[in-house]
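Reopening this one. Same input as before:
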Amino acid sequence: MKNYLLSILLLAVACFANAQTNIGGTLSSNTTLTKINSPYQLTSTLGIPSAVTLTIEPGVVISGSFDVLIKGKLIAAGNAINKITFNNVRILFKSTNLSNSQISYADFNSGGIQLADEDEFHEDAIKNSGTLTVSNLNIVNGFAYSKGYNTTASFKIRNSSFNTSSVQGFYPLSETIKFSGCQILNTSILSDSYNKGIYIDSSAVESSKLMMGCCGSYINVTNSVVKSSSGTPGGVSSDTDGAFFITKNSIFINSPLTYSGATVNLENTLVFNDGQKNVPAISFRYTTIKNSSFFGAKNSISLYQRGLAAITSSIIQSNFYNDSIAIVAEQTKSLSISDCNFMGQSKYTIQNNSTTNISALNNFWSKTNSSAIISMLYDSHNNINLGDISFSPFKTIPNTLAPSLIPNGLSKKDSLNGVVVKWNKNKESGVAGYKLYYGTFDGINFSNSVNVGSDTSYFLTGKNTSDLILVTAYDSLKDGLADMVEGHESWYSQDIVPVAKISNGDSLEICKGSKIIL
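Same output, byte for byte:
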């Protein structure tokens, strides 16, 4: 009977209507699952021991509520025409060099991939090592987990899609998970307490949750678009104290990040918040924000410092448009705001609810005298028990250190065989020129554009006033690669919120390579 534990049980049940191969047990030698014998039904855990390779051919279907346990090597390489399909199957890697295995062009339905199954009290004698790299996966109602304890291993997921699924780096000290070129929809993403981090690069995230535990948990978003999602505490801790959320070269669309105990750092990021959820765009304990732009609405707040912070938070060289209140400091020990541009706030630019003084020097307030600026600040002038907001010296023209400003005063007038488009010249000195955009608009990018140089009007042939035509301003450092998020080109000339949407296809339209196309 022990032979059943040492060798695979293959029992072919032949019938004219539906051939099926039952499979289970532990492999004793290299084995290939062929398309001709597919579909395969797991009857028990399928074990691949050390020094044994399981190869799965393109087009194979494997089903069953059991594990495929990899301690040796897995080669599951489908292709775009013949994908491998796993139904209700967990692929679990334990005590192996992950770099030796491969999974590509595979569909997971109610199943997924997991690194190890450890915790601090139940460790494997031999730990995973290397990096598991998977690509072109489609995971629906499934998962991608890292659950090793303090290993040297890591998990890379490329050019894949997730829908109604779960991604988690488990407590504690589990491996990093890195996404690249992925589409993530209706999915919960959790870097649990002490997890080594989840990285999202050149990807699109929509209607999802970005959750962090405490104590060094980490989410890093670069070159990506996040839409209609939310960031909240999660996992074994109800707080995010010591957690880190970092974003660079990215766009956040109505996706509030509420990490009151965390460090939230932004650089080269566009943040859109329509205020409908009645929560600030970003809540934080500590922050460093640089070269970013925030686009608000009538009832919105862009930044909210909630936690008492012993470390200095700084907000520099950034733009704030059209909020009710741009920045609220509920509790702070040190907050510095400098070289920013504030435009269109309806209530206050900064509201200081703390007893600490806030330094807000060298900012452009869209006002030209001190009394007008004071009227847009809430501090000790409103409540003697509160701290001051120091705002002098201030700028009377926009800061050129901040991202390029949106042109205003756009008008269109029908003319013979076309339309004349005009706009106001930007006030900042660093503008090198303007670009006109028209044609098909996917929510972020237009199909057509024309560089009009320093002119503030342009005749566009074959168009009329009913066509969507917008203009941007750019500086001398514009190079055509992610200029909007890098701050070298402004957003479009109207209050138009991007509407990037993830499709069900295999391609990611809004990202290409490692850059957002803007």
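So the earlier flakiness isn't reproducible anymore. For the record, Residues 370-374 form the longest helix (5 residues).
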